[in-house]
């Protein structure tokens, strides 16, 4: 369905609606019985005509014309910097409040590349490089597709779900959200920064300096109707509208985020891209309206770094990353990319080193070369795009830096034969299509986009679910959970076309779902009993008297489902530890006693083995029947690979 012949047919196929939207809404694990009902009564449009910047055949510029990012070495004085700039006839247009890197507009006497080489060789300069453009990753698409097959195949007209996918995909191209939602729908304590064209998060008059960025006659930004129940980040230390930087973070009145394009406190979307991306992560769900989001209880931090035409610069993107990290974001979604730069590499390294998960799009050129910042392997999870049949989308960049793939769609095919093109569905407004057709932030519909921009928020959303389950997970642990549970596509194991494979939301959650009586700092909070008096307290643990078998420490667990779970224990170092501390594991097949040598250094999790547990209550008991003092600190149960395999199909 790349083309629609009949005009009325085109409108029905390309434009979506409330009645049909109810079909796409996910009510946790509940399926809609008749997904085709009410199509003729749909009152809103499904629209898919969408043009990539430069998609009209023009070449997209790689960097901002005449601009450099110049970072000076520590100790360079303002006088020295000004002397160098003035001496070469450069104009300073921006200074990063985070890194103090300068954006200079340079004379035309040299090319930007020549100026970068010139300044880069100066002893005062740490690095100098073009102020590269970043582009939103979306591409032209055509007739629409009305259901969110990219979440879970059971949402489509394919009544048999994944099992009837004629292409053999394990989940019809989706990521098993219905099973994941039975475990978690996210947490408002997890903040995801959407660093993009902005987000339609508020009703607000369009400032005069932005009025020419949208269609004529539009005077106000609007909050997306289907983001009405979505949680947006609030800076509680800032007072709105008083013209002061109350929290001293360098940004005045930044209650809701920041607009690095217009340098104001209202990161509203005047393109449509960022709002669509946000919907995939946290669209309001189970509200009887529109469509669903992956981690719909998650909090979104809007940060605008791309202008109305989808373009932005390294300086703005990098500062958006620094802002997100410094203000509490746990995940950063970057549905954008371009050329390599030190400016951007330093920013994503900063995020990673501060425990923030960074997810970025691989690019839409269809070439064997992943764009940046996705290709910064040490710091960023690079995401490519797949179709309904779980093959690489034709536009998706691939290569050695690719980590994962997620549904990005292909609106030129209808592989599941539901009469709609296979795009990724979310609500946004009539988007920017070019200088001849600017965005209208008041014209709302449900749009079907395709691109690695659309794949990336699938991964960010699942990462948010993982952090909702276990807030202490590190970026490396999040990466491991996603990669180790992904559905393997292409060549066995990791390959350059699919990375580690197609993300599987439910399997990743099960990988990270641990049941710990206490936290990993090993502070004992289990129940205890003693006939010989209160056990001696030692450091971060409780010590039980040698030789008294009636002294016990008990940890109780609630097992969520039948299956195999691995039992881990931890103890605190102290003198006179037992070499045969007895742990009793009460499991489905009875009780097992495992004696542990606690003389070895503590502070690390030690496995007692894998046991079968029935859903319900279970316990682990440590007694004092040992050759010396026993230490009772922490016990946890972690889902085993065998149980995980049941969910991995």
Please give a structural write-up.
This protein is an alpha/beta fold. The chain folds into three domains: 7-52 and 138-512, Peptidase S8/S53 domain (Rossmann fold, 3-Layer(aba) Sandwich), CATH 3.40.50; 63-135, 2-Layer Sandwich (Alpha-Beta Plaits); 515-648, Galactose-binding domain-like (Jelly Rolls), CATH 2.60.120. Helix content is 18%, strand content 25%. Strands 6, 9, 10, 11, 13, 15, 16 and 17 form an eight-stranded parallel sheet that branches. β3 (91-95) and β4 (102-105) form a beta hairpin. α6 (273-282) runs parallel beside α9 (452-469), α7 (314-326) packs parallel to α8 (342-353) and α10 crosses α11 (505-512). The longest helix is centred in the last third of the chain and has 18 residues, at 452-469. The chain is globular and about 85 Å long.
